[in-house]
């Protein structure tokens, strides 16, 4: 039993436009799947898709997760920033210091991401998407390690990080204090149970396993036709997809 990270979902006011931005920026193929909707398929070892779902709710605060993108040189970092700006990104200030080497940007809907300076040892063996950096507790890092079967690659001073055994980005949590929560999450995980679909009650068994690890059912209690909304120990929303 277990779950795989199927997709990172962007809840967007204009999903088509946002999907085109990230497709052009990452160079990933954009597909419009009858069931999954607008999806970007990774062209590298990232290991999960990007999905774009429509929402009417505006973005009101800083996201609890963002991409950290790597650079091989200062020139490479500048080229990445320029490419993002040409496609519709913008510079933003989230309190970074002038002496810090990373560049903070936002996509056309305000979702933050960072272009990290070269020479970052923590991301040295990662691809272009070096990390999915999250605001979160040590407890939630342990939860996701067990939920996804990803080993811990960092656990120090209440900061944690996990990574797939197959490589790809690291998923990191910075420890307390956590940012206040306002509104619904703009970026969420879609999990796909990895159990054999022929196994009786396999989907419910995976829900029960996640609950035993510390997840809760979503505050709406809503079970849609193809997914169940849940929250992790920090209250971050995620969905468990019904096997096809």
Quick structural gist:
The chain is built from four helices and 16 strands. By secondary structure, it is of the alpha+beta class.
Describe this structure in words.
Residues 4-118 form the VOC domain. This is VOC family protein. InterPro entries: Glyas_Bleomycin-R_OHBP_Dase, Glyoxalase_6, VOC_core. The protein is of the alpha+beta class and 244 residues long. It has a single domain (3-173), classed as Roll (2,3-Dihydroxybiphenyl 1,2-Dioxygenase, domain 1). The chain has helices at 15-26, 74-87, 138-148, 202-213; strands spanning 3-12, 29-33, 37-41, 49-54, 65-69, 90-91, 103-106, 112-115, 129-134, 152-156, 159-163, 170-173, 187-193, 216-217, 227-231, 237-241. The strands form two sheets. It has an eight-stranded mixed sheet. An eight-stranded mixed sheet has the order 6-7-8-5-9-12-11-10, covered by helices on one side. The longest helix has 14 residues, at 74-87.
